[in-house]
Design brief:
Layout: E1 6-7, H1 21-33, H2 38-49, E2 55-59, H3 66-74, E3 92-98, E4 101-107, H4 118-131, E5 135-141, H5 148-160, E6 164-169, H6 177-181, E7 191-193, H7 202-212, E8 229-234, H8 241-249, E9 269-273, E10 276-281, H9 293-310, E11 313-319, H10 326-337, E12 341-347, H11 354-367, E13 376-378, H12 390-402, E14 403-404, H13 407-420, E15 433-440, E16 445-450, H14 456-470, E17 478-483
Parallel strand pairs: 2-4, 2-5, 5-6, 6-7, 8-10, 8-11, 11-12, 12-13, 16-17
Antiparallel strand pairs: 1-14, 3-4, 9-10, 15-16
Helix pairs in contact: 4-5, 4-9, 9-10
C-alpha cells in the first residue's frame, strides 16, 4: 500500500518545500485551474515547508515589561500582564511576523521573589531560556537603570554567545532618551529606547531583531550521513530518567549525576543501542530544591523545552506507578508543539499489580489521547525489563517523522475521502477541499486548499484518516488550510 511513500533523504528532489520540480509544476497548474492566486499558493507552501522558525527569547528581571513587549511584538494581547512581578510563570511561545519574516517569541516571564533571592531565580530562568534561542531581546527598565541582577543576566548572555538586542523599556518620550543611553554601560551595544506599552520605538528594535535572527535556522540534527540521531529523554522529576539512561548505557554516566539540576554546560552522551550509536541530549533530572518546590517545576519545564529543541526524538518517561499528572501532560504537549517524534516510555512497570494496570490503561486513554499515535514501551529502569523494545520504537517514530506522501497520491486519497465524507454544511454552505500537498517533513506538514473554512473537527478527522492510510506513527502532523478568495475563483 505504501510503496510510493518515501522518507526524506531517499533521493527525491526537495526544492519548493518537499516538492520536486516536475511535481511542483503540475501542482501549480492544478492551483491555477482551481482559481487560486499563484503567489498565494507559493506563499502557503513556503510557509508550511520551512524548517523550525527562528526562536527569539525575551529575558530580563521581573516587572520590566517583558509580557507587554511580547504582546506588542505579536500584535495582540495574549501574554498576561499585571503591574507586579511573578505573573508569568510558564515558558510561553507565540508566533510573530515583522517585515514579512516569521519567527517564534518566547516569553520567559519574571518570577516572584523567594528565599533564594531574585538574582538566582532570574539567572536560572534566563540561562535555560536562551539555551534554545537563536537570538535574545534583553529587556531593562530604563527608568530604574542597570541593576546588579541585570549585570548577572548580562554575564549569562555573554557566556551563551547568542546575538542580543538590548531593549531599554519604559521610555515614553524624549525625556527618557538619556536614561536609555546610560545602558551603554552594560556593554551589549546600542540600547533601543522603547515603550512597550505605547509602541514607541518597537519598530526600530524589531528591525534589529531581524538582523540578529537567522533567515532559516540550521538543521543541527540528522544532518550528516551516518551521524548519530539525537534523542531527548524527558519527563517530570523523579520518574527515573537517570536510572533509565544508566541502564541503557550499561554504566553510570555523568550526564545524570547528582548535580543534574545545576549543570551549566550540558554534555550530550553518545550511547550504542541495538548496534546503532545515538546521541542522548542532556536532560539531566531536575532536583527539587528545599525552599523552592514550585520553582523546581518551572525550571524543569525550561530545561525540558531546551532539550526538546535540540533533539529529533523525545522519549517521554512516565512513572506508571503513579497517576498521570498535569505536568506529564504539559511535557507531552511541549514535545508535540515542538514538532518532535515521540515515544512514550512507562517506567516501573514491574511494580504494577493487575488493578493498577487496568486503571493506567484508562488514564492513558483519557489523559494522553492526543498522542494515541505514539509508540509505547513498558519498561523498568531498575531491572532492565523490555529495554530492547526502546530502539525499535525510536526507529518507528523517526520513520513516521520523515515520511512524505507524493502529491498525486495525497490528492487521490483526499478525493476519495471528501467524496465519501463531505464537510458538514454550515450556514447553508458546504466547504470543499479542492487539493493539497505535503510541504515538508520532520514533522509532516500539509497544506490543503479549500473553498471555505474547514472546521477543527473535520481537520482532526482528516488527520486520523491520514494516519490510518499512511501510518505516520510516532509523529505529530501539522495541517494548514488556505481558502480560495472569491475574487480569484474560476469563472464558469
Amino acid at each position: 500500500m505504501n510503496d510510493d511513500i518515501h522518507p526524506e533523504g531517499s533521493g527525491a528532489e526537495h526544492d519548493h518545500g518537499a516538492l520536486g520540480d516536475a511535481e511542483y509544476a503540475q501542482f501549480m497548474e492544478l492551483a491555477a485551474e482551481e482559481g487560486f492566486d499563484i503567489e498565494e499558493v507559493e506563499g502557503a507552501i513556503e510557509a508550511a515547508g520551512h524548517g523550525p522558525l527562528p526562536v527569539l527569547a525575551v529575558v530580563g528581571r521581573p516587572n520590566v515589561g517583558k509580557s507587554t513587549l511580547v504582546n506588542r511584538i505579536i500584535g495582540r494581547r495574549e501574554a498576561v500582564v499585571e503591574d507586579k512581578p511573578g505573573v508569568t510563570r510558564d515558558r510561553v511561545t507565540y508566533e510573530a511576523e515583522w517585515a514579512g519574516r516569521r519567527f517564534k517569541v518566547v516569553d520567559t516571564g519574571g518570577w516572584e521573589q523567594d528565599v533564594l533571592g531574585i538574582d538566582a531565580s532570574v539567572a536560572a530562568q534566563a540561562e535555560y531560556a536562551i539555551e534554545a534561542a537563536d537570538a535574545v531581546v534583553f529587556v531593562v527598565d530604563a527608568k530604574v537603570g542597570a541593576t546588579d541582577t541585570d549585570e548577572a543576566v548580562v554575564r549569562l548572555l555573554r557566556k551563551a554567545g547568542k546575538p542580543v538586542v538590548l531593549c531599554a523599556n519604559k521610555v515614553d518620550g524624549p525625556s527618557g532618551e538619556a536614561d536609555a543611553a546610560a545602558l551603554w554601560s552594560l556593554g551589549l551595544g546600542e540600547p533601543y529606547p522603547v515603550s512597550a506599552l505605547h509602541g514607541r520605538g518597537t519598530g526600530d528594535m524589531l528591525d534589529q531583531v531581524l538582523e540578529a535572527l537567522p533567515e532559516a535556522p540550521e538543521q543541527t540534527f540528522g544532518g550528516g550521513v551516518g551521524g548519530p540521531r539525537r534523542i531527548a529523554l524527558i519527563g517530570r522529576p523523579n520518574v527515573g530518567k537517570s536510572s533509565l539512561l544508566n541502564k541503557v548505557a550499561g554504566e553510570e554516566r555523568v550526564v545524570v549525576n547528582e548535580l543534574a539540576g545545576t549543570t551549566r554546560d550540558p554534555v550530550d552522551e553518545l550511547i550504542e543501542l541495538g548496534g546503532v550509536t545515538w546521541k542522548f541530549v542532556d536532560t539531566a533530572g531536575i532536583r527539587k530544591r528545599v525552599h523552592l518546590q514550585q520553582g523546581a517545576d518551572y525550571y524543569a519545564s525550561l530545561r525540558t523545552a531546551a532539550a526538546v529543541e535540540k533533539a529529533e526524538v523525545a522519549v517521554i518517561l512516565i512513572d506508571a506507578s503513579e497517576s498521570i499528572s498535569v505536568q506529564d501532560q504539559r511535557i507531552v504537549t511541549m514535545a508535540v508543539e515542538a514538532g518532535r517524534a515521540i515515544v512514550l516510555a512507562f517506567n516501573k512497570w514491574d511494580t504494577l499489580d493487575e488493578e493498577r494496570r487496568y486503571y493506567l490503561e484508562r488514564e492513558i486513554e483519557t489523559e494522553l489521547g492526543q498522542v494515541a499515535w505514539a509508540p509505547r514501551v513498558n519498561v523498568s529502569a531498575r531491572t532492565g525489563r523490555h529495554m530492547e523494545k526502546l530502539v525499535p520504537a525510536i526507529e518507528t517514530a523517526l520513520a513516521g517523522w520523515e515520511t512524505r506522501i507524493p502529491t498525486g497520491r495525497l490528492n487521490a486519497f483526499l478525493g476519495e475521502l471528501v467524496a465519501a465524507h463531505p464537510h458538514p454544511i454550515r450556514g447553508g454552505k458546504q466547504p470543499r477541499i479542492l487539493f493539497g500537498t505535503q510541504a515538508g517533513t520532520k514533522p509532516p506538514r500539509f497544506v490543503l486548499f479549500a473553498t471555505g473554512f474547514i472546521e477543527a473537527g473535520y481537520r482532526r478527522f482528516i488527520e486520523r484518516r491520514l494516519r490510518e492510510e499512511f501510518g505516520f506513527e510516532g509523529t505529530p502532523i501539522h495541517i494548514s488550510v488556505r481558502v480560495r478568495e472569491k475574487r480569484g475563483a474560476k469563472k464558469k
